[in-house]
Each structure stands twice: as structure tokens, then as C-alpha cells.
UniProtKB/TrEMBL annotation:
<protein>
    <submittedName>
        <fullName>FNDC7 protein</fullName>
    </submittedName>
</protein>
<feature type="domain" description="Fibronectin type-III">
    <location>
        <begin position="262"/>
        <end position="346"/>
    </location>
</feature>
<dbReference type="InterPro" id="IPR003961">
    <property type="entry name" value="FN3_dom"/>
</dbReference>
<dbReference type="InterPro" id="IPR036116">
    <property type="entry name" value="FN3_sf"/>
</dbReference>
<feature type="domain" description="Fibronectin type-III">
    <location>
        <begin position="89"/>
        <end position="175"/>
    </location>
</feature>
<feature type="domain" description="Fibronectin type-III">
    <location>
        <begin position="1"/>
        <end position="88"/>
    </location>
</feature>
<dbReference type="Pfam" id="PF00041">
    <property type="entry name" value="fn3"/>
</dbReference>
<feature type="domain" description="Fibronectin type-III">
    <location>
        <begin position="430"/>
        <end position="517"/>
    </location>
</feature>
<dbReference type="InterPro" id="IPR013783">
    <property type="entry name" value="Ig-like_fold"/>
</dbReference>
<feature type="domain" description="Fibronectin type-III">
    <location>
        <begin position="176"/>
        <end position="261"/>
    </location>
</feature>
Amino acid sequence: APDTPVIDQAYSKLSNSITVEWRAVPGATNYMLTAQDGDSFIETIVKNSPGTVMGLKPATLYRVSVRSMNSGGKSQPSPFRKVKTVLAAPILSVHSLSCDSIAVSWKAVPLAAGFSVSLMRSDGLGRMLKQNTTNTSLIFTNLDPGALYTIKAYAWNANGMPGDDFTYNQRTSPNAPADVKVSFNSGALRAAVSWMPTEGALTYSVTVSSGLLKLRCNTSSASCTVPSLQCGSEYYVSVTAYNDAGASEPTDAVSLKTIPCAPVNISIEEDEPGHLLVSWSSVTLGHYYVVFVKSDDGLEVHCNTSYTQCHFQSDCGFTYFISVFAYNKAGQSPLGDVFNYTTAPCCPSDLRAVFTSSDTVRVTWAAVRGADLYETRAAGGGGVLLCRDTATACTLSALHCSTAYSITVLSFSEARGGSAPCAPRDVATAPCSPEIKNISKEGLSIINVQWQPNNEEATYVVTARGEAGLWHCTSTRNSCTLMDLPCGSAFSVSAIARSPAGQSFPSYSIPLETAPCCPNDLTLTQVTQSVTNISWSVGRGAQTYVTTLESPKGQAKCHTLQTYCLLGCITCGTNYTVSLRAISETGLTSSCTYQGYSSSACCPSGVKLYRLSNNGIRVFWRASGETINYKADLHGSKGNFSCTPSSGLNHCDITKIPCGDVYTVVVAPVTDKGPKLTLFSLFCPKKIYS
């Protein structure tokens, strides 16, 4: 084993170790250091001097010895040295109280008489600050904000021996950021906050607060965006800088007013046709409002106001899309609900009413914007007729005659309902058909027609229609007279009423028959002294005829279907009145009077012939009347001869009659109208003379 080493010196620089120095021992390969504290000891093997025993207790007295070693064994322990370990280093608790101060504190160190604490910027700038104290805490002030400082502290004992030191790096908290700026993005409802960077700040926190609501944005840069802000709110924005020492004071709050919220409680109404009133509730932070109204034809108008309502001109039948925005310095409010308002459809234009019959009117009009349905209303006669259709025409039937109607066409839409009251069109139906009450004859060709007047201010026209033609009469009252109706004709009599509104239906027809016509021509032919033949032309409308020859001496009558008649018992030399009655099939009678008729004068009686000399003949007769003149006629094959007596005589002579012939001699009366010998000679008796 090697020799025992000799300790040159032993000392303690750290509270947990003792360092020993000795002279080297030849042949020794290792050394064993031993530090003994009472019954406990700690051994450490080292290669050479110096050597350090670790794991000791601070401020403790140890007996230290050294032994040399090699493969042969260990030497004896060297004479020991007594060495006391130094004081333990104080364990610092360091924090930055503010941006310019650091507080240092520690627990008491056993056997320590005092403490020494030094502070210096870690970057070497500035001067070092050092303080000695017997307390267990102290504060360094007037430091640079956000700077990193190195702090070293140790304790010393009563002999002034310093113990272990403790080093700690501490940064002061940063200063509050400067030049904070806030910009607001109204479209995205977010705020961009920026500031000047502050020394020593590692991160920043932006706080945006409004009442109990707080929004934060953390960043390591000098700007930050805070999203999801609420419209219509006022926020207060502050920025705090942070580092490992803590936080700076927050900056003075910057006020941020966001855009106003979209107006609510929007109401739209037509306070009167053609005027829209848009109103809404006021909103927080709204300085003024803009209302946009866009019609469905693309035209847009707007209204700018600081009030909560706007008036707009509107047209019927349009749909308007309405949006209301609030504005302030921050910008425009978000888009709220877009309302649409459809105005009532327009009143139909170009309204026309045309009667297709007396009780039916066809109403047409031009289509109007916004109308889905039309309602035609005809009021009159104590009732209302309705017609609903999608077409632009309507036919109203079963109207009351002679009635004024007020026709109104309203348009309807599903969105708004009916149009505003539209101007009516007044029409009047044609008069009611009159009812003929009576037809009376006031003369041969005069007919009076009476009817029930059932219209006001109507003109009545009565028409008699037949094969003979048309006859009319007109009146505004309840009767009129048909004049100059032809005889022997059948008519259908009807009446109509006329007014400016039109013409009524004709009344029911009443048949009318005029009395038969009197024959135009009537001829009397005397057949014998006592028989006369009467013939006449046809009387229109007559079926039978009654002819009468009447004189004071008697009457001759004949009733026949023919147009002639033989009347007997005619008295010669008598004046007769001639009458004829034409009787129709229905018994209507026309009494016809003609020129009087005189029967032939009576033939003389007692005609006698007396031969005269010179081939002559005297004819005698007995006159039938004092006023009658006669004439004697002699007819033979060799000639005809006659003679007329002088006035007052009843005979005359015919001379120079050819001999050798047979003659017929007739004495016949002569009238004042001229001779009718041919006629009368037929009636008077003949004498034969040879």
C-alpha cells in the first residue's frame, strides 16, 4: 500500500462540499477523501489532488482526511483537518411588482448574519445595483420596463464569510403599449386593433368590453383582429402587454361604436291610395336611416331621414321590395328583413258596357296590372248582380227592364285583395214591354189601342202588321190611334217602348181584323119589268153580301156568297136606294151605299093599231102615268119606223110603211134622260101588224 498523504489545505467554497489539497504520494493510483460528521461520514475517491467531497450539509463542521490507494491496498488516513462548510445560498423568490420594480424575497438561512443581493441588466447595459440586508426581502425600483435582469444573492456568517450564492434572471413587466388605434370593419363586424410595440413584451392581449360582455384577442404581434362584434353596441378597447414577469397596465380604453343594427318593427301601409308609409323602430346608435324601395319593374327610389318613417309615391298593381338601413359614423347596418308590399290592383280602364239584348249587357275592360280576378257588380232595381272571372269581360243577364244600373268593375289580387273604389258606369236597360189592354174601333179605318204604361219617359210605338203592310202610331201616354187602316185586312197588333236606353221587346200580339171593303163597282141590270140583276166587284175581306133595293113601295133583298144577285118584285117606274152589306168570315160588316136606281118606266096598256091610207098606221095606247112620254116603234124586214106623239097625246102615226111585210109594233116609254127604247121595248108587249 502507498504512503499516507499529507493534507496541505482543506476549505469549503460551497455549502455542500469541501475541497482538499495534498501532496502526491508515489505509487498511489487513487485517493479516498473522507468527511466525518459525528458518526456519519461521506467518502469520495478521486484520481489526484485537489479533490472534493460532495453531498455535505451546509454550515457543518467536518473532520476531513485523505488515504492513498493502489493495487496493494490503502494507506493509513492522513491527519484530519477540521473544515466547516459555508452557509447555504438563500433560495430567492423574485417577481416584478411593476414595469419598473422587482421584488426579491427568501427564506432565512441558518447561521446567516446577513445577506447580499445584487441586480444588473443581463445585457450588461446600465449599472449594477447591490444591497446588503439582514431582512429576508427587498425591492429594486426605477428599473427599465420589460428588461431582463440577473439577480445574485448570498448569505454570510458572523465572520463575514460568504456562503453559496443564488442567481436568478427576472424580467420586469412591460410598459403599457402606446398609440393604440382601432379600425372597424362594418361589413364583417370586426375590429382591427394596432399599437406601437413595447420593450420586453412577449404577447399582447386586446380586451373589447361592453357591459358584462368581454372579448379578448391574444397575439405576439402589434395588431389583432377582434371578430364577432355586435351591431348597435359601444365597446371599450384596451391593450395589455405580457411577458414572463406579468402584465402591463392596460392602456386607456378607446371607445368603439359599431354600426347600428338593422331596424325592426317595420310596417308598411297605404295611408291613402298612391302613398306608402314605411315606419320602423329607432335603433341604438342609429344617426339616420335610408329606406330603399324597389318596384318589380326595376325602378328604385330611396328616402334619407333622421326620423323613423318615410313616405313614398306608389302605383297600383305594383309589388315593392322595401329594406331599411340605419347609419352612423361606423357605417351601414346589416341587411335586415326585406319586405315586399303589393299595392292593390288598378281599377280597370276602358270600361265598356254593350247590351246584347234588352236584359243582357256585356261588360268589357282593359286588363290592369296586378289583377288576378275581376268582380263586376251591377247595382240597380233593388238588387245587386255579381260576376267574378279572371277574364276581362263579363256578361250580366236577367237585368230588370226599364232600370238604371250602376256597373262597377273591381280588380282583385291574392296579395292585397280588392282595388280601391272604381268609377262606376251608369247604364239603363231598355223599357219594359207594354201590355196591350184594349183595342177598340172608332171608325171604319180608325183603331184605338190602349196599353198599361210601365215605363218612365218612354215613347210607345204601336204597329199593325199584315199582308197589306205596316201601320204605326206613337204616343208617350197609354194609348194611340191607328189611322187609315185598309178595309178587309187582318193585322197583328203589337206595341214596343222606346227610350234613350233602347227598345223593349214587343208586347204580345193582338189579332185585329178590319171590316170588309165595299165593292168598288156595282152594276144594276134590269132583266124584266120586275126583275133586276145586280153585280159587283169583289170586296176584300168579304165572304157574303147582302144587297138591298128599297123604295117606299117596297124592298127587294138578296144574301149571297156570289158577286151578283137577281132581285124580283121590282116595281116599274120607281126610284130605289141601293145598299150592300159586305160581311167577313168573322161577322164584321161594312155597309155600302151606292147611287140610287130607277126601275124602267111602266109600259102603256091598251095598245091598238089602226090602218091609215097611204100605207100608214096609227098606234093608240093608254098611258100609265101623266108625265110619261111614249114612242112607237115598228120593226120589219123592210125597215124600222117610229113615231112620237105630240105632247099630251096618246097616239101617233107612222106613214109610208112598205107593203107586203109583217111588222112588230112596240110602244115604250121615253125618259127625260134619253130614249131607252131598246131596253124598254124588251119589257113592253108587242103587236103584230101585216
